[in-house]
Specification:
single chain; 101 residues; alpha/beta; 3 helices; 5 strands
Length: 101
């Protein structure tokens, strides 16, 4: 699971509690992931990537990419670019999950 815009890792922490064997990755702004790295609820096994999704490629090979409360924060052009990056990061047959309020 690659959580894009995952903030402090709250969502990935919940995923880990339900499926501890699943490999987890978090992608967010460098300053945000620095905070996530100090989150005691986030398992040590989570691989953390800092970057800006409009500019930087997402880590590849994910079976599932999650966008939790991310899409609604950006205009259409940014979301189109983000979804292109998500598509590039997915493993063949992968899934995108978008959760918005």
């Amino acid at each position: 699971v690659l959580d894009v815009g995952g903030g402090d890792g709250t969502f990935l922490s919940a995923v880990h509690r339900r499926a501890p064997a699943v490999a987890l990755r978090l992608f967010d702004l460098p300053a945000v992931v620095a905070h996530a790295a100090r989150n005691p609820a986030l398992p040590d096994s989570v691989v953390i990537h800092g970057g800006r999704f409009p500019d930087d490629p997402l880590p590849g090979g994910a079976d599932l990419v999650t966008l939790v409360r991310v899409v609604h924060d950006h205009d259409d052009a940014v979301v189109r670019a983000l979804l292109r990056r998500v598509h590039e990061a997915l493993a063949p047959g992968g899934t995108v999950m978008i959760a918005e309020p």
